[in-house]
Amino acid sequence: MAAMIGRIWGAFNPPTPAKSKDALKFGILGAANIAPLALLGPAKSHPEVIIQAVAARKREKAEKFAKSNNIPEIKDSYQEILDDPNIDCVFIPLANSLHFEWAVRSIRAGKHVLLEKPSVANSTEAEILFNLPELSKHDGPVLLEAFHNRFYPAWSFFRSLINPADVVHVSSNSMIPWWGTGKDDIHFNYDLAGGTMMAMGTYNFAALRMAFDAEPEECLSCDVTPGTEGVHKKCDYDFTAKFRFPNGAIGEAHSTLKGPTMWTPSHVTATHRAVVIPDKTLPADQEKAQSREVTLHGVIHGIFWHRIDVKDVFEIRSKDNGSVIKKWTEKKSHKTYSFSEAGGEFGHLPGETNWMSYRYMLEQFVNRVKGRKTQHWVSQQDSIAQMKMLDMAYEKSGLGARPTSDYTITME
User: Concatenated DSSP letters for 89-121?
Assistant: First the structure.
């Protein structure tokens, strides 16, 4: 408990090193509640990041936000941030329906973009955004969908314990208690591209894709509880989806924004088929088989708590008739709050136990902008595939994909 308290205290009260002369200056589009957690806090401990400016729909809101977060400049509009040559990067935590327009505008303005997930409202927008010609230029802007949890050490270690080619089933669950959301939240506004699949389900779906290291071939079912009136209509309050992946593998995902009072951590479980493994100690007419189940508890915010459980089931079998001669189970658990704790191939990677997943992500974002090597990244094609999976589920549910923005662009 003491270690957890110290770790979390350190995350919210990080050291503040002096900023370098060539630090990247960020502008924030929107005084969003997620910004302090996603960028402002992580920026404190990064010597190459300065939060320079913020703009909001109402200047009074931007002023209040800037004052409470020690942001030196307040702009009158999002466009004013993009027009400022002193701003290197922008963070876009706006409603999903606005991601496409302002990401395109930012890239066209030559800004590097850290874009809240889900990246856009649907795959149509994703195909356009992530294929902008500016992104393919050698010195072009950097665009990253902010899948922060995928940068956390526990996720990397989890993936190192599974062999996607042998995974036959993956399940992923997440939830927000009923008291954590309200009826008027943007998550429940169809016009703003809301819905539980867009909010929490995007984590679940990404977990399936990463565990299988493949894309779904079909959404077999998607059961939802939708709103019934006004802007809430066509917005899912919860969902349960099943997907078919290559070779007949099955992925299942569930989430709700109206969950029970008691919060439970998100988790993902990957189940492997039994495979024969070498064992030279066995007689010639016997073989050893292993099946593995790996569960990561705490998929989304691993710094608060997580655990990786590994259950290996071994069998000694007769090669003649397949009968089981001996069977036993071995269990192990791991916690990796830093890459040094993960050890092995990860031991040399940067990070501290008090770094949140957002801080790990910011480290890689800055590295990419500075032209340095990145250990992990969410590629443009990855983000497109993610939106295709969301569309696939929404179409199967009967609610349909989220509406496309009216903002139009010309491809240069």
Answer: EEEE-S-HHHHHHHHHHHHHTT-EEEEPSS-SS
| DSSP codes joined into one string, 276-336 | EE--TTS-TTEEEEEEEEEEEE-SS-TTT--EEEEEEEEEEEETTT--EEEEEEEEEEE--
**Which of helix, strand or coil describes residue 240?**
strand
Question: Left if phi > 0, otherwise alpha if psi is -120 to 50, otherwise beta: which for 343?
Answer: left
The pLDDT tens digits for 54-71 are 999 999 999 999 999 999
Residue 344 neighbours by CB under 8 Å, 6+ apart: 160
Q: How buried is residue 99: exposed, middle or buried, by Cβ count under 10 Å (0-12/13-18/19+)? A: buried
Is the peptide bond prior to 42 cis by the omega test (within 30 degrees of 0)? no
Amino acid residing at 204: N
- The C-alpha atoms of residue 247 and residue 217 are separated, in whole angstroms, by 10
CA distances from 42 to 17, 48, 110, 243, 354 (A): 12, 11, 23, 35, 10
Helix (H) or strand (E) holding 352: none
DSSP SS3 for 38: helix
pLDDT at 412 exceeding the cut of 70: no
pLDDT in tens, 199-226: 999 999 999 999 999 999 999 999 999 9
* Contact call for residues 170 and 209 (beta carbons, < 8 A): no
Mean pLDDT of the chain: 96
Q: Which two tokens stand for residue 157?
A: 């270690």
User: What is the C-alpha separation between 136 and 140, in angstroms, rounded?
Assistant: 7
SS3 of 51-71: the string is EEEEECCCHHHHHHHHHHHCC
Q: From start to end of 208-285, where are the E strands?
A: 218-226, 236-244, 250-259, 267-272, 275-277
Query: In whole angstroms, what is the distance from residue 128 CA to residue 104 CA?
Result: 9
The pLDDT value given to residue 2? 80
Residues listed for the chain: 412
What pLDDT is attached to residue 409? 86
Residues 6+ apart with CB under 8 A from 177: 259, 260, 261, 262, 263
Rounded distance between C-alpha atoms, residue 200 and residue 397, angstroms: 16
pLDDT > 90 fraction of the chain, expressed in percent and rounded: 95
Chain segment 222-270, per-residue pLDDT in tens: 999 999 889 999 999 999 999 999 999 999 999 999 999 999 999 999 9
